Amino acid sequence: MKLALALSERADVQSRINDISERLNRNAKVQEGEKPTEDPLALLDELEHLYVHLEELIIKINRTNNATRVGNESLADLLAKRECIGGKIRRMRKFLGEASDLTGRYYSKSEIKTYSTVSVSDMQKKLDILSKEFRLLDDRIQEINWMTEII
After folding, report:
1. CB 3 within 8 A of CB 148
2. HEC per residue, 32-90
3. 63 φ, ψ (degrees, to nearest 5)
4. Could you read off the pLDDT of 7-50 as tens digits, one per residue?
5. d(CA 5, CA 126)
6. CA 87 to CA 70: how far, in whole Å?
7. How far apart are CA 34 and CA 25, in angstroms?
8. Which of 19, 52, 71, 82 has its CA 20 to 30 A from that of 121?
9. Measured between alpha carbons, how far is 35 from 31 in angstroms, rounded to an integer?
10. Which tens digit of pLDDT belongs to each residue from 65-124?
11. Residues 6+ away with beta carbon under 8 Å from 82
12. What predicted TM-score, i.e. pTM, was given to this entire model?
């Protein structure tokens, strides 16, 4: 099985776990004399099996990510780098959104003006460069995922 398929399966299992959790919560209580729409014990059993399968997948994926070399780095290293770049991008976008919003003026006899504390255009250029770096790294990781056999 290719790493990309294992990642897709992991996402599917996680989605099924979330679905069963919601169904469990809906069947946690019933009014006196009523029966739950689904058997909570059966749902708990299915949840247990899904978690066993998820753990197996995560172990295989992690082993593969650690063992797969891309130049001097492991695939796990590239994933950490991508996560950090993505975090920077999200924070910068939020900050630039705030820095660009200058409409919060209070109108009165003594108007309060607001100004951005940074050059929004310069910061946007930096964000564009970071976004390109993220896209290129993500493309590289996706390519590796489709070429790598799961351990």
Report:
1. yes
2. CCCCCCCCHHHHHHHHHHHHHHHHHHHHHHHHHHHHCEECCEEHHHHHHHHHHHHHHHH
3. -60, -40
4. 999 999 999 999 999 999 999 999 999 999 999 999 999 999 99
5. 34
6. 22
7. 16
8. 82
9. 8
10. 999 999 999 999 999 999 999 999 999 999 999 888 866 555 566 677 778 888 899 999
11. 134, 137, 138, 141
12. 0.81
Predicted local distance difference test score (pLDDT) of residue 40: 96
CB–CB of 3/61 below 8 Å?
yes
Q: Which DSSP category does 111 fall into?
A: P
C-alpha closest to that of 2 among 64, 62, 75: 64
Alpha-carbon distance of 7 to 11, in angstroms, equals: 6
Q: Which residues contact 127 (CB under 8 A, 6 or more apart)?
A: 89, 92, 93, 96
pLDDT (0 to 100) of residue 115: 81
DSSP state of 27: T
At residue 104, the pLDDT reads 56
**Contact by Cβ (8 Å): 3, 149:** yes
Confidence at residue 137, expressed as pLDDT on a 0 to 100 scale: 98
